[in-house]
C-alpha cells in the first residue's frame, strides 16, 4: 500500500509543495524505477528517500559514507517522527536495531558501504521487508569522483540480489564522466538520470588574491554573523589560524583536522553543529559528514583540489536556502605547487590534472561572472551574469599588461631562471642592492626598465603568468619560463589583468539572521535554543531560521494556525508547538 506523497509532505515535513525536481524523483521511486538524482546541496535530497520510505511498505536502507552524517540525519528524521536507526561501529544497540528491522519497525536504516557490501548484511536483509535502497554521496562510486571509496563499487551484487527493490543514487557533484560511471556501477538506466541543475543562487561567490591572509580572514570573520567554515591547507595552518581568530574573543573558534585525537575531533564537531555562531577552521577532512543547514559562510584559505571539490566544499554554506557567502583566497604559488605535483604522477593522470588546474585558473582569473564559470564546468548554459558574485556586483577593470609581462619574462630569462620575485623586482625597477651588484645584474639590459605605475603591476603580473603556465618554479622557489612564455615573448599572445576592486566596508544588513531587527524573532530563537539544549539536539533540528521568521511575521494565534507555517509538521507541532505559541502570545499581550 502506498500513502499519498503530497499528504505526507504536508503532515510529516510541514511543506506545502515539492521543490525543484523532488516530485519527479519521488514519483519514479514510488513507481519502483531505478534513479540517479543529481541535485545541488540544499535542494532537499534527503526528502527524496525519506518520503518514499514512509509511503512504501518496508524499510529504506540508506548507504552513507560517514557516521557523523548518518547521526545528523538520524536526529532530523526522529524530529519529524520517522522511525530510523543506524548500524555502525559506534552503535551499541545493534542487536535491537536488527530485531526492529526484522519486525518491520524501521522506516530508515543507515549503514556504511563497507557494511552494506558484506555477506553478513545481505543475510540480515533477507529476513526483512525492503522499500528502497538509497545510495547517498553517490559520486564516491566513481574513480573519477573526488572522494573515491572502493566499497561503493562493491554494492552492485547487493542491489542485484534484491532486484525488485528500487535503487536511488543521490549526489550534488558529478561531472559527465562521474555520472556515466555511477549509472554503470549501480545498474541505473540512462533515462533514470534526473539533473536539477547545479546553481545555488543564495550563495554569493567571491575570489581574492592573497594579500595579508591573516588580516583578510580576520576581516571576513568579523563581518560575517552566524556559523562559518574556513578551509586551511595543512593541519598546522588550521591550528595557527584558529588561535589567531580566537584572540578576537567575539565568538568561539575551533580547529579540526585528521591529526587530532578522535575525542577532540568529535567534541569540536559536536560543538560546531550545536552552535549558532561558531567558526570552524579545518582541513577538507571536515564537512562531508556535516548536515548543518545554517552555515552562513565558507572560506578557502588556499586553492582547492578542483572545481568539483570547490563546488562541494563551498556548497556547505547556505544549505537552508538563506543568503550565504563563499570566499576563495588564492596565490600564484598555489598553482606552481599544483603543477609541480603533476610531474610526480603517472603519465595517464597528468592530462586530467592539468585540466583541473586550468579550470581553477579560469575561475580565479576571470573578470566575468564566477557562477557562470562554475555552471559551465558542469555542462550548463547559464546567463552571462548572475547578479550575486563579486564580479557581477562590482565589475573589475581589466587592463592590458602585455608589455610588463614581456619585460618580466625577459628578466627571468636574462638572470638565469633561478631567482624569486623580490630579486626580479629589484632588477626591473633599477634597485642596486648587494645581491644585484654581486651577480652583475645591474649591467643587464633589463635593469631599470620598469618604473612608475608599471612597478606596482609586477606582483599581479607575476601571478597572472604563473596562472597561465608562462612561469613555473624550480625546487628552490626560483622562477622559470614555462610553456606559455614563448607566445607572449614573441608578441603572439596578449596578457590582460583583472584588477581587484578596492576594499570597501562590508554591509552586514541582509545577511544577518534577523535583518529587520524583529524582537519577536529573537525571542523565538531564544525559545528554540532552550528547547534544543533540553532535547540535546542542534537548534536547526527543531526549526530553521526561515520558519521562525515566518512565525514572527504571521503571528499565529492558535496551534492550528501555527501548523500552517512552513516547516511545522505534525510531530514538531505536537512536540514544540505550544512553547513557540506561548512565546508569540506573550509577545502580543
If you had to describe this structure to a student in words, what would you say it looks like?
There is one protein chain. This protein is an alpha/beta fold and 589 residues long. The protein folds into 4 domains: 5-195, Rossmann fold; 203-393, Rossmann fold (3-Layer(aba) Sandwich), CATH 3.40.50.300; 398-498, Orthogonal Bundle (Arc Repressor Mutant, subunit A), CATH 1.10.10.10; 519-587, HRDC domain (DNA polymerase, domain 1). The protein is 44% helix and 12% strand. It is built from 27 helices and 17 strands. A 7-stranded parallel beta sheet has the order 3-4-2-5-6-1-7, sandwiched between helices. A 6-stranded parallel beta sheet has the order 8-13-12-9-11-10, sandwiched between helices. Helix 13 (307-314) links the parallel strand 12 and strand 13 (324-330). Helix 15 packs antiparallel against helix 16, helix 23 crosses helix 25 (545-554) and helix 23 (519-535) crosses helix 27. The chain is globular, with a radius of gyration of 27 Å. Residues 506-510 have low confidence and may be disordered.
Question: What is the level-2 CATH architecture name of the largest domain?
Answer: 3-Layer(aba) Sandwich
The CATH superfamily of the largest domain is: P-loop containing nucleotide triphosphate hydrolases
Helix content: 40-55%
Task: Give the averaged pLDDT, no decimals.
Answer: 88
The end-to-end distance, rounded to whole angstroms, is 48 Å
Question: How many strands appear in the DSSP assignment?
Answer: 17
At the first level of CATH, the class of the largest domain is Alpha Beta
